[in-house]
Design goal:
Leucine-rich repeat, LRR (right-handed beta-alpha superhelix), 16% helix, CAP-Gly_domain, leucine-rich repeat, 2 domains, nine-stranded parallel beta sheet, globular, CAP-Gly domain-containing protein, LRR_dom_sf, single chain, 8 helices, five-stranded antiparallel beta sheet
Length: 389
């Protein structure tokens, strides 16, 4: 059997080093931050910011000197996660969405004989599969149209296919998992999502996207989305606010383990995003200030569940952003105190809060919750000093 994929785009444009491109070397993923020479050495080096801090050796330096070329600066989002590697065949730059889909869901026959060709998509051969005994392959490709859930977690998806191909291949997908991928930006995610009009749930955990600054390309991409998971993506709260502004039907939002320490409070109260958000999950962050959390989410005041265990959030600041918020999850954060609410600061719609595994040590903090969330029905505070000491 011989299988080939011929893309209408130029493969070299996606399978060669570029600043900001995501790569995988063996089991380690990272982002290219520098391409060029390094002093006192010969040849080209790639400066990589690794997702796993343990893989890093420095912060974009050699012999203590920050590397600066006329074309780029090797700077990092997380200090100490950088190192240099040589361009080599062992570096994977990923694959397209449909390549990953076919590789995972179609078991191509490994036999010899007369070869046939089947075209996937509607782009006049944009994706072409050549193999032996394609009757079974054609049947499996046809089933893509019936797929409702697709998981391409750890399958190195790095870019979208030509316009229309994804929509033609799997138009009925409602749930998509692209966690641990090599997608470089939200723009690329939007290009894929725009092809899936039935998409309702999207998981993007453990990715590293470039900083989100503009949503122009996204306005038609997430209109039907109801659930979004972006755990361990290093996303910031301002980016979350920007994202939800183009997700008018989002109901469940998970932003755990993103090292969030402060949300920003009243700075974001003018946004009118995510007016249908019901559940907001901050599990495993570093939020400390209850008032910051409340003020930053103040427009989601119909939340039902809050888990504030080891976070460092100001509850007043974020609740106002989501008037529909019903659940607030703050498990495993670092909230120590809940001060009494100022007049007119009450959050009326939150019914359920999860504050387990935080640092609350006084029952006065629990008493203060009544002023913040007078309609509260359930509260979980297990794992705090006040109940575990």
């Amino acid at each position: 059997m011989i299988s080939t994929f011929t893309l209408s785009m130029e493969p070299d444009d996606y399978r060669s080093p570029r600043i900001g491109r995501r790569i995988k070397v063996h089991e380690h993923t990272g982002t290219i931050r520098y391409i060029g020479e390094v002093q006192d050495t010969r040849g080209i080096w790639l400066g990589i910011e690794w997702d796993d801090p343990a893989r890093g050796k420095h912060s974009g330096q050699k012999d203590g000197r920050q590397l600066v070329s006329p074309f780029s600066i090797f700077s990092l989002r997380v200090a100490g996660t950088g190192s240099f590697i040589r361009p080599s065949p062992s570096i994977s730059y990923g694959q397209s969405f449909l390549h990953a889909l076919i590789s995972k869901y179609v078991d191509l026959p490994h036999t010899t004989g007369h070869k046939e060709t089947v075209i996937l998509g509607s782009s006049n051969g944009a994706i072409e599969v050549e193999a032996v005994g394609l009757d079974k392959v054609r049947a499996k490709l046809a089933r893509f149209e019936r797929l409702r859930e697709i998981s391409l977690d750890v399958d190195e998806v790095a870019w979208a296919d030509p316009l229309g191909d994804i929509k033609k291949a799997c138009p009925n997908v409602r749930s998509l998992d692209l966690s641990n991928s090599l997608l470089p930006s939200w723009d690329m995610v939007a290009l894929i999502a725009a092809e899936l009009s039935a998409l309702r749930a999207l998981s993007l955990n453990c990715n590293r996207f470039s900083t989100l600054t503009d949503t122009k390309i996204m306005h038609a991409s997430f209109l039907g989305l109801k659930e979004l998971r972006v755990d361990q993506t290093m996303i910031s709260w301002p980016e979350v606010i920007t994202l939800t502004s183009v997700m008018p039907n989002i109901e469940y939002l998970e932003v755990g383990y993103n090292d969030m320490k402060i949300l920003g409070g009243t700075a974001f109260q003018n946004y009118t995003s995510a007016t249908k958000l019901k559940i907001l999950n901050f599990d495993g962050n570093e939020l400390e200030e209850w008032s910051d959390v409340m003020m930053s989410t103040a427009s989601f005041t119909t939340c039902i569940f809050i888990h504030a265990s080891i976070l460092m959030i100001s509850t007043n600041e974020w609740i106002r952003l989501y008037d529909s918020l019903e659940r607030l999850i703050l498990t495993s954060n670092r909230i120590r105190r809940i001060m009494l609410a100022e007049p007119k600061k009450a959050i009326l719609n939150i019914k359920h809060i999860g504050l387990q595994d935080n640092l609350l040590s006084s029952w006065h903090d629990i008493d203060a919750l009544n002023e913040w969330v007078p309609e509260l029905q359930t509260l979980n505070i297990s794992g705090n000093p006040l109940v575990s000491g």
